[in-house]
Prior knowledge:
By secondary structure, the chain is α+β, with helices and mostly antiparallel strands.
Amino acid sequence: MPMQRVCFLLQVKKDRLAEYKKIHEAVWPDMLQALRETGWHNYSLFLRPDGLLIGYLETPDFAQAVAGMQTKEVNKRWQTMMAPFFENTQGAKADEAMRSLPEVFHLD
């Protein structure tokens, strides 16, 4: 099955940037395992100084990968912990608020 390349944007609160980065230096092992089990591959996060968070991953099916994570207990704990870090989610947790951007070019 071909891999989808997925990019999404979120906004981290400026006053929480340092803490957000620190938490991601040691993501829980069971969270990392859950991501792998649900089809998140080559997953990276990039953070601009103004709080713009860019996520990138490759997966056979993004909707299925998100849905799979939403069944994991570790993800529920992680999303609850991370919810206060984000702006403009209209009350949704980050994994519910992220929307993929359409790909317009790929070199290969």
